[in-house]
Amino acid sequence: MGFTGRLLAWKRKVLLLLCIVVSIAVLVPALYVFSRSKTMLVQETKDNAEQIAQSIAIFLQQDQGQYASLVNADSLVPGSREEAYYHRMNDMLQAIKAKTDATFIYTMSMVDMHSARYVLDAEQSSSKLFSPFGSSDAMNPIELTVFQTGKPMVTDVEIDPIWGAFLTAYVPIRGSDGSSMLGVVGVDYSAAFLQQRIGQMRWVLILGFSVLTILFTFILYIVTLAILGKAGMDDLTSLGNKRAFNHALTQLDDDARRHDCPFVLCMLDVDTFKIINDVHGHLTGDKVLSQIAKTLTECVDWPKGCFRYGGDEFAILLPSTSLAHAELVRNEIKMKVEQITLAELDDKKLSVSIGMAQWQRTLSIEELISQADQDLYEQKRALWSNLKSTPLIRNQQ
Fold it and tell me: Is the pTM of this model over 0.85?
């Protein structure tokens, strides 16, 4: 795997790590929100059941004379007023059920401590679930408590051996004296309905928190790369700094030893840079460095292999390159640098010295840098030998 491949692998590891961290960070509040939402959903269903039962009870109490006659009737005589009232009230309950999510709506009257009988039922008469007028059912403890206390009650999800699992609200239907009981209104919500609502809520939360996880992971990934990139970047030239250079050089050395793929290290120094700073000022010197950095990235196939090593010194890594090809790159850089024009330099040309060293298995990283520095030093010494007689140099000495 080459250096670029290693860089991509490292970025993938960073992304995976962030994804795991964010997922764990999001999972805890997600589970809490789900638990709270589930509790709220059950409570909301209880409230809905009780409100529906309360509304029906109030409506029946407003015409309690007819309802009392129906409750006290042993059977429904065809054509009687009780039968007409019974069908009219059943139609009303069916309409209410159709507009709500309730599973069953019915009214019951007390027979004894152990049984009750159905009065009204919102099911269609043709349904197997329909409870005809006067049909009996076992009295459960909650129903009995409501009949005895006259207080509304709502159960949790309970399992009935005949009807299944339901959450039920019971509301008393009071007589005209306010103390007697004509019966109770029952409103059932099935456990299946609750599970469906909880399942829908679960998927909404999963989708929402998944989007948040992806979004936060992506944002943190970008920010992390930006911070790490900034930590390895020279602010003036936007090239990698010495820290980034050391990391890249170590990776290239490791790749070269694994795959026997030599590379070339170039060390570059700006000629007469101290004189430029002294004569034209440090701002001009900064412009020179920026222009040279831009030139390096234009001349090198791998722009990320260009670094500001320190001061006016640059380093260039040329992967999978021979000295012969590196020589071509060096000549192109020198030519392009000489073409740089800055008004602050009064049209004076710039030049650079570039030392080179090719990787060898017998060389350590320190020795490779030392060889490139030594080659640079020889070029600088030859350059100063040629320039030492110029007036500008003599004035600086």
Answer: no
